[in-house]
Amino acid sequence: MNSKKKKLKVLMASSEMSPFAKVGGLADVVGSLPTALKTLKVDVRVIIPKYGFIDKNKYSLKKIARNIIVSPRIRVNVWETEVDQKIKVYFIESKKYFNRPTVYWGNNSERFLFFSLAVLKVLPVLKFKPDIIHCHDYHTAMIPDLLKIQKNNFYKNIKTLLTIHNLNYQGKEGPEILSTGQLSVNSLKSLSDDARDGDINFMVQGILNADIINTVSPTYAREILKPSFSCGLDKILKKRKKDLYGILNGIDVNFFNPQTDVFIKQNYSFKALDKKVKNKLYLQEKLGWKPSPNKMLIGLVSRLVWQKGVDLIKKYFARLNCQFVFLGTGYPEYENHLKDLNRKHPLKFKALIKFDIKLAQEIYAGADAFLMPSRFEPCGLGQMIAMRYGALPIVHTTGGLADTVDGEVGFRFRNFSSKNLYNTIEKAISVYKNSPKKWQKMQKIAMQKDFSWKNSAKRYLDLYYKIAK
Ligand code: GLC
Question: What is the pLDDT of residues 414-462, one digit of tens each?
Fold first, then answer.
């Protein structure tokens, strides 16, 4: 159907993109969706800040424009490289705002409002006029506002899609922040309305001013219309209900492939599932545990933040007939909680507080089951990766977890409580111990599920065509 339509030019603007800058799932999405869109013949490019830790030699970055005036006192340089299928990635360099060893620090709203303005200012210099700017999360949610007030003809007819990956982060600041974007409360009605409660909310602005909006799963798109999930934005979201869609994320199925994964001890597939156990034995040994093929091993790989529900895992879980391995970093409160479990019951819990891609893969490959007790989960990538590796997910039925995990491939609990999680793990252990045939069947179904970007990229293309001029 789309073949008769014109070839679209799309610019994705984001604070994260794998492999250059990754904190969470946002990076994975912005790192892998463009490739699928390119296959659908979209001229898609990505723009992110040039953070201090991005190695220009490793990624062959070239400086392509210098001293572009963003605001009277601040100029930026633009660097470029290409990833899969010649997708251009632009990097905005500003010493003041981005040249540090982390993605998020200081006043993030100010830094990313500057980035958003810089994105618009560099486009004419790059001679790239996109049909659509695809914004991701609050960091770039001010782009629709900024576009609306540009006077230059160049910006006419550029449309915007805002993808909400997580409503819990909104970017709220006093109205003074607006000057960073050369805006004021009088620039738009949505800004003067917003300022009435004393601050400006970037996510609110994006929701009100983007041409179209989506979240990263159909269930989350429905959930956020309810006060219990909306983080205060249900009324605003309801105003845009007919322009709000839910599109499930995909994962990079080439990278996350147990048959070819170079990080794991033993490659395997659903046809040679018996080989998976080698990864478990290897992992147990690496963790300092006795290799025991029949002891159920449950993995968790996550950012350690409130959303992820790791606080549901309590000391009494040590009574369960299984072992837990946790990998991730985040807030000290959750890091300490997991370290504490490890200290009290070192034979039951292992807490690895770090960011380690190889170890993450070893856990997906070695674990029998994978835990995601998230309070809310816009999409969640871990459960999809786990399924591909035959680790059956144990999840809270919410958001993308509800959309991707059913009883055929995993274990779910509806009401968010420690007791329910405990009982669900107990159920999983009982299937694992007492019905190994059933367990294997579930693994095989899970491993054959299609989590590629193919279908979802088509849905994004449909959204682009809905708004493109
Ligand atoms: C955020 C969400 C997660 C989602 C990811 C990518 O990290 O918390 O659920 O999978 O963004 O969209």
Answer: 999 999 999 999 999 999 999 999 999 999 999 999 999 999 999 999 9
Question: How many domains does one find in the chain?
Answer: 2
Of 12, 163, 165, best ligand 1 pocket probe by most atoms within 8 Å of the beta carbon: 165
Q: Please report the atom of ligand 1 found closest to the CA of residue 400.
A: 9
Q: Both 284 and 410 in a single domain?
A: yes
Give the pLDDT of residue 469. 78
Cis amide prior to 49 (ω within 30 degrees): no
What CA–CA distance (Å, rounded) separates 329 from 103?
15
User: Which CATH number belongs to the domain containing residue 344 in this structure?
Assistant: 3.40.50.2000
Best residue among 379, 385, 403, 404 to mutate for probing ligand 1, ranked by most atoms within 8 Å of CB: 379
State the Cα–Cα distance between residues 416 and 438, nearest whole angstrom.
Answer: 27
Structural domain including 202 reads 2-250+454-468
Q: 371 and 404 share a domain?
A: yes
Same domain, 78 and 192: yes
How many angstroms is it from 165 CA to the middle of ligand 1? 5
- DSSP annotation of 7: P
CB 295 within 8 A of CB 325: no
Query: Are 333 and 416 part of one and the same domain?
Result: yes
In terms of domains, do 7 and 60 share one? yes
Rounded CA separation 143/140 (Å): 6
What is the model's pLDDT at position 5?
Answer: 79
One domain, residues 7 and 30? yes
The tally of CA atoms less than 13 A away on the side-chain side of residue 399 is 27
Rg (CA), the chain: 23
337's tokens:
């909680």
Residues with CB under 6 A from ligand 1: 24-26, 29, 165-166, 216, 249, 377-381, 400
The pLDDT, as a whole number, for residue 4 is 62
| Tally of CB atoms within 10 A around 16 | 25
pLDDT of residue 2: 47
pLDDT of 5-62, one tens digit each?
789 999 999 999 999 999 999 999 999 999 999 999 999 999 999 999 999 999 999 9
> Does the reported pTM lie above 0.90?
yes
Q: Are residues 215 and 320 in the same domain?
A: no
Atom of ligand 1 lying closest to residue 303 CA: 7
Q: Which atom of ligand 1 is nearest to the CA of 381?
A: 10
Q: Crossing angle of helices 202-209/108-126, nearest 10°?
A: 40
DSSP 34: H
